[in-house]
């Protein structure tokens, strides 16, 4: 059973709409990752945080995607203007020490853009 | 391009048989991890094998790592229907993100 909690499990948005997903990392894990998994099971790393600070993010994230991990609140990933190509499973993972160690994933938020 | 990739898209076996998933990667690594993702779930780590290790076991699972050929394998013995899943290798190459392969679907039938 996942200890990383992601909400919502599913969201359906029209093109141009905002889509927001939340993630509560496993307790005590300072490092949080967001990945996008497409229908072919391919993973795309989006962004990661250590506590509230961004460690690394890809160019796509810098344009229409925004993410934050405020203290004492869930982490979030938001797509400002959804496009059909954003339809995917968005996975949040947390870790004690970063990518060289075990990542604990949530069950994901599946976004469908119609 | 994929920095880690499994060699076959899909494998099918019957319960009780063994199955091996292979993975190759393209740069030097500090560690390689194997994850399993069942339908409707997020990935779950099975084994983490560091670059100075050649083999690691976890119950019915056995992972090998050959840094000279930049390849790894995950073997599952005495398979069960609940082993049906997509299996990914993932590598950490010094950056901050874990890089996942494209996955191999393993189907175990009764």
Structural class of chain A: mainly beta
Low-confidence stretches of chain A at least 5 residues in length (pLDDT < 50)? none
E-strand count of chain B: 11
Q: Give the ordered list of helices and strands of chain A.
A: EEEEEEHEEEEE
Which CATH first-tier class of chain A would you pick? Mainly Beta
What's the CATH H-level superfamily name of chain A? Immunoglobulins
CATH topology of chain A: Immunoglobulin-like
Q: Which runs of chain B of at least 5 residues are low in confidence (pLDDT < 50)? A: none
End-to-end distance of chain A: 31 Å
Q: Kindly state the number of beta strands of chain A.
A: 11
CATH class of chain B: Mainly Beta
Shape of chain B: globular
The proportion of strand residues of chain A reads over 45%
- Here the CATH topology of chain B equals Immunoglobulin-like
The radius of gyration over CA of chain B amounts to: 13 Å
Mean pLDDT of chain A: 92
Specify the CATH architecture of chain B.
Sandwich
Integer-rounded radius of gyration of chain A:
13 Å
Tell me what the structure shows.
The complex is a heterodimer of chains A (114) and B (110). Chain A has 114 residues and is mainly β. Chain A has 1 helix and 11 strands, in the order ββββββαβββββ. Chain A has one domain (5-113): Immunoglobulin-like, CATH 2.60.40.10. Helices cover 4% and strands 50% of the residues of chain A. In chain A, the strands form 2 sheets. In chain A, strands 2, 4, 5, 6, 9, 10 and 11 form a 7-stranded mixed beta sheet that branches. Chain A is globular. By secondary structure, chain B is mainly β. Chain B has a single domain (4-70, 83-109), classed as Immunoglobulin-like (Sandwich). Helix content of chain B is 0%, strand content 55%. Chain B is built from no helices and 11 strands. Chain B has strands at residues 4-6, 10-14, 19-25, 31-37, 44-50, 55-58, 61-66, 71-76, 85-92, 99-100, 104-109. In chain B, β6 (55-58) and β7 (61-66) form a beta hairpin. The model of chain B has no long low-confidence stretch (mean pLDDT 90).
